[in-house]
Amino acid sequence: MHLSNLIRGAHRCVEDFIAQRVKASGLSVEQYRILAALHDSDGRSMSSLATTVFVDSPTMTKIVDRMVTSSLVYRAPDSTDRRKVLIYKAQKGAQVFKSLSSIETELQSHLEQELGRSDLEHLMGTLHSILESTQADDAPALAPANLGSIGAAR
Domain 3-152 - what CATH class? Predict the structure, then answer.
């Protein structure tokens, strides 16, 4: 099996794991990932969120628009540069995320049980290395912002 198929298959399994757990809250996996990113660092630019969540900018705009309509997040001007708009989690978004906050721990525990701690740590290190190497200047087609559009095509 090709490396790209292995990565795509693992990605799909993780996405399905998360989707099953966020479905009852009415969120998509991408919306959950946005709330998680804002939980880590609230008040982020659209481009920062797009890079973190691995989706392209037009898709990010559509997702955030829906989240604003649902009162999960809100837009506000950047206090240091009024031309920029930042995204913040709203109270409802914070509450929804809090109710789902155990998902990542549950996923990591499940994988640790299946793979063992050492193999999971090795896998995580390898994945970090792959992401870092594909973000190099000589590999622009594999930059994280572009990887989201690959996953969206499935």
Answer: mainly alpha
